């Protein structure tokens, strides 16, 4: 399907060389490292987290390149690996925040600041975990990274109408999941307040 993938010759060379030869793999890292870092930073908004995500991505590429099939372009797979690495870091970040919150239970909740944007971002990214991967990638590329529909279509090797359909379907699913999460949270809070 992806005979025209410009990365195919380099990926095939890297697969033939690994694990003992790494010249072509290192060329892949040089070629795509900047884009992976920028994508990770656009999601994580932290230089150190974006660097960690970039390292995780290329470690996953090193380990998984032998299983990669050219059903989609290499860049498409790299996008998915990058999004997964970012989600893992966001989960770790949320778990650390929960631990800090548990330690500080005696303190009153902080007054709202600029935090709601990042809290909402974390909530939405958490809900995205519950959406099918192909749709999730389109939503992240469109609404988190700001790609246009034609750009997404080109990167994912899909038609523009298919991308728009996935974005529309995903936005509806995300809205339903958000409303469900809001309904679930409300009663718990009122019960806690009554005891």
Sum this structure up briefly:
It is built from eight helices and no strands. It is mostly helical.
Topology as H/E string?
Answer: HHHHHHHH
Q: Indicate how many domains the architecture comprises.
A: 2
CATH fold-level topology of the largest domain: Rna Polymerase Sigma Factor, Chain: A
**Strand runs, count:** 0
Specify the helix fraction band.
over 70%
Cα end-to-end separation: 60 Å
Radius of gyration: 20 Å
Give the assembly state of these chains: single chain
CATH class of the largest domain: Mainly Alpha
Structural class: mainly alpha
CATH architecture of the largest domain: Orthogonal Bundle
Give the amount of beta strand, in percent.
Answer: under 5%
What is the count of helical runs? 8
Which spans have pLDDT < 50 for at least 5 consecutive residues? 187-195
Shape: globular
Largest sheet: none
CATH superfamily of the largest domain: RNA polymerase sigma factor, region 2, helix turn helix motif
Q: Report the mean per-residue pLDDT as an integer.
A: 81
